[in-house]
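Record type: monomer structure entry
Structure origin: computed from sequence
Chain ID: A
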Amino acid sequence: MALAGNGDIALLIALGGIVIAFVLALIAWRPVPLLIAGTVLVVTILIIPRLLRTDHGGWNESSAVSNLRTINTCQINYLSTAGGSYGRIDDLIKDSLLGDHFRGPVSGYIFNIDVWADGKEYTASAVPASPNNGRFAYYTLPDGVVRYTTTASLAPPGMAGLPVQ
């Protein structure tokens, strides 16, 4: 997991301090400080990964929604220059409408565009590259509305297939 900011560094420093306190308590073999340090160490180990995942996931999720809106705009531009057909990611990149970085994960999300055989419809999707990158997956159609995925496990409870607010 890559460090992203001062909050991550502060958490790692705090964890380092707790480990040092634990080691010192072991050396001195004082049962009460050892018990307290051990409890704090276990709780810290359990909580820090969740805090980091939630914090970064929120940033990645808003970026994924924004990137899907960008794809919708690119599709409108492509439609007007490609004879009335929508394009796949490679088509949009080739026409310099999307950056080359969309070939791989962008802000922790993998983007894909499926175009119908006649080129008149498309579905653009954004799925977390891993569970640490985001909680939800999204998709959009030519109507330009970004929605939560229809897969219930990758959408907020009761929101599968509904527009993102």
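Annotation 1: The mean pLDDT is 83.
Annotation 2: The chain has three helices and four strands.
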